[in-house]
Amino acid sequence: MSILSGKSIKERLAKGDLIIKGVREPSIGVTSLDVHLSDKFSTFQYYAHTHIDSRKWDNPARYEKLMPDGRNFVWHDYTEEYLNNPDFTIHPDDLVFGVSKEYFKLPDDLVGRFQPKSALIKMGLLFFPAASWAGSLTPGFEGDFQFGIMNKAWTPVRIFPDMIVGEIFFEKIE
Hints:
Shape: globular
Number of domains: 1
Number of strands: 14
């Protein structure tokens, strides 16, 4: 497997077999594409449950409300989802799920690997993929990239939509 250069990423986008939507112009570096945070966040309702039975996981939406400030709030059985947020505060030892602003459609010969920004890691934020394997977008993947964010710092950390949270490296497979 070989990592695509920024030039090769641009060529694949122009060819149309690699598709990235959701941002005006994808931010392409020497060997990667920047991943931006969207305005969607979800958290577990720790206060409402003594435990979660993983054998009976079902998390349907139960209630939706438009807040006075324009944010949407969706209550599920186990999680709370926040939409249209101007920012989000992650408290120490809290786990939040975020979503990339980018929407990806990969061809069958590419894998995308996510690497979080080192500056965010230095703040105490740990990132992990929520809906993929080992930080990868698998060949043929289509959708936004979902990831968990955990704050291991001693102080709260505010995150914002449109901020760059990491980058995706594309590798060609044979």
